[in-house]
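Feature request, filed as a ticket because there's no other form

It would be nice if the structure record came with a short human-readable summary line next to the tokens. Right now we just get the raw output. Example of a typical job, pasted below so the devs can see what we mean:
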Amino acid sequence: MNRVVSKFLTAVSLERSKFDRSRDIDTWKRSKIVEALGSLEINSTNSTSGDLESSFPESDEMELASGCFPLAETRLKIVSKGEGYGKANFTVPVNVEEAAAYFWDYQSRAHLFVTHDREREIEERKGDWDMLVRRVQRIEKNQKRRSKIGGVEGKHIRILRSAMKLQKTNDDTIVITFRPVLTRSSTWSLNMTSVLASPIEQHVDLKLTRTSDTTTKVEAFVKIFVRASSAATAESATKNALERYLDETTGILRYFAQNVPLEEMTGEVAEVLGWDVIWDGGKMGGEDYRTQDKVQCVNIKCMESKALRAVTERYPWFPVLMARARMGELALNHSQRMKLECITEKEARTIGNNLMPCIKSRKIAKAGIEQWKVQNRAVEVSVVARFVVNCAGISHA
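Raw output as currently delivered:
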């Protein structure tokens, strides 16, 4: 029964992903923002990029953030109880205008999907590139405590109001800033079943630099102040808030990797998709499925990615092969010499199980992968082997 239900839910998810148009809507909205950015004038006299970046500690003084997305360099430093700095540095496979449009489209479904916020809204537009925004964060989705108001249990939330501005500092650099706007309404919960988390002041600079016509370097600078009842709570909340925002920022890397079609797939994008499968979700809420059920996680990621969805539609057994390789269980090595077109779910399960014994039998992982390809004829096809190897958390393919 469990197997039947699992296959049924997978089929439903496939159909839902096939007819879902939320990504198309976001793409259309970003295209309009990109058009508007084309006429944006350069403002180098009043740059907003220097005030936060210049006050940051040196990278060697900051510790590596634990649990953040592996393909982004993320660092943080807790200066005092309740004050901390965070920094992220990575490259995305889109031009600088497209990257800026992703962040500027504040209410996009992409942001809601990545952050799992309860609400994201634009309260006021003060200009073409200046607006007041508001978000309601879910804090520790499964964590509950007794509310002092009426004695009811509720989930933690945090309400953040910010002044958001965009500015082009030169032909190749766009800076987006967030500055906190503290009012009484920003520190009150939405209803009686929600418990307000420790309030914070969050200063953010997003610096987007063109490195080529198709790639953009993203640098995020985050400074946070947490007001908490105790020093221990302030330090913990500061670190969690920094790691969470850094995770949310790297969401652009995963989002655009999922949008790459199979015909345009590269090794770098395949590596992002692979790490997205094995990553535990960091500090973001709503990512429990990543650690609770590895098979479900593989199925979800195969539906979200255009490239993986195309492979799955052509080879329905592909998620099974990826899931078995992802689980990394030690099993007997049974080579399969069948062609790719003749593979069924039974052979796919065996081929996935063969990956770990091959790697364990060699001193170097790359040698084990080559042995796995030779023993299993179906994965000699580069695209299949690349996805499976990266899904298993091995970057030496």
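Something like this underneath would help us a lot:
Residues 264-391 form one domain.
The radius of gyration is 23 Å.
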